[in-house]
Amino acid sequence: MEDQNNFPNPTSNSDQSLDPAVEKKRQAMIERLSNRHQARVQSKDSDSSPSFESTETFLARFSELKQSITSEIDQIEQALESFTKGDLDNVSALINDLEKLLAENSYHLPSYEVRASLKIISELRESLDNVSVKMVPKKKFSFRSKVAKQKQPVVAIVEEPKVVSSDKACIMLDTPGFRNREGEVLVENLKGKNMGEFTLSNLGSCEVRLIGRPRAIFIHRLRNCKVYAGPALGSVLIDDVEGCVFVLASHQIRIHNARRCDFYLRVRSHPIIEDSSEVRFAPYCLHYDGIEEDLTESRLDEETGSWENVDDFKWLRAVQSPNWSVLPENERISSLRVSTADS
What we know:
This protein is α/β, with parallel strands linked by helices. Helices cover about 40% and strands about 25% of the residues.
């Protein structure tokens, strides 16, 4: 994370050309972002995140953070010339914190609260993207050159050179994840990276390969996709998927609005489904170089059998839920090996 006290000025004579009131607002925002950055560092050092005992306490904290992020985005939009891309990156980091807060508390939240919170996070991301697009033309040449040079390895992996031809696409690569893609093989090698949360959103007929260990995975609005992922340290949260195959390992996996999907899981707690139908479950079957080490470090090296003990929160009867089933052995993928080389 870039030091908040060393942001480059938007122009070489910033202190002389900017309105004093605007400059005062910018400095106040940078101070707030710096304070939040220090709080995030301390949180990471302690390797713990807030976990709330009641839905009301979580919602109060979530709402507080959401209002704060909205305020920061509004201030940037009202005075674009006063802020830099570094300011946008730090607001994006605050949204990541909000995603992490939801992921680590979603297991105990009502399903409608999880869906509402996901929608809010998506709207915040969209608002930040819109502000980013407005800012890019003002720094078009220096910004695009810098991003294209730094992000070229990622573009090479997914074999999609058009990514660097769009200012908006370059901005999207600044946040971890794949969004708004159709018919592509998307590969992310997280080995050796201090990766937090990874997002898959609005994908159609794509194959996604995540090699390594993210902290959490958020999956939203996928159609006819295949997702093969290494172990997540925390949670996997899935919403609005259809006709997909997922190969996932995590401590907690919660699934909303899934239709006609197969899940190959390794999970320490019971998988949870809600508002889902025709979903089938089987054991985790993914292999790549170094996965044994990743599973061990994630404390997921042991097969607990929890993948077949699914809790359907919308089926409260004593008999088996009709919404899910165990995938018959003769229809399962027995072993699946992936790499970055054959993408």
